[in-house]
TrEMBL record:
This is MlaB-like STAS domain-containing protein. InterPro entries: MlaB-like_STAS (IPR058548), STAS_dom_sf (IPR036513). It comes from Streptomyces finlayi. Residues 20-97 form the MlaB-like STAS domain. Signal peptide: none annotated. It comes from the Bacteria. Gene3D superfamilies: STAS domain. Pfam families: STAS_2.
Amino acid sequence: MSTATRLSCERYRQGWDDWIVLYGELDLDGVPLLARAMDDAPGRHGCVHVQLQSVSFCDVSGLNALLAAAARARAAGRAFRAHRPPPVLVRLCDIVGCTSVLLGDPAPRAAVAPAARRRHLPRRGRRAVRALAALVTVRSQQGAG
């Protein structure tokens, strides 16, 4: 059995905002990676966005890491937004009672149909979404090989 983390992430900056895109399983093994990603988010202004669409699993330690990341961002005077959480994370937040803290409103964007989201994206935004989807596909094929 491998002890390597099954979580990977990408970080990028868009304007004042820092984006962290997570892929894989957010469990005890992945917590240090999320903490390092938060440490590497250099901005003191704007929002820290965490894209969770490609997270396939999240346990209580992963939820705790996300809540700690949100607390750290807010303590530094920054906003924190978790985007497109998987159903398992939404359910976990409901059970623990932290939905409004981590996800904002009780109906996260993951519940909105993809076609409805796509209509409101500018052309450049749609290209970025397609490029991100292609990157996720390549990463999943590399992981399967």
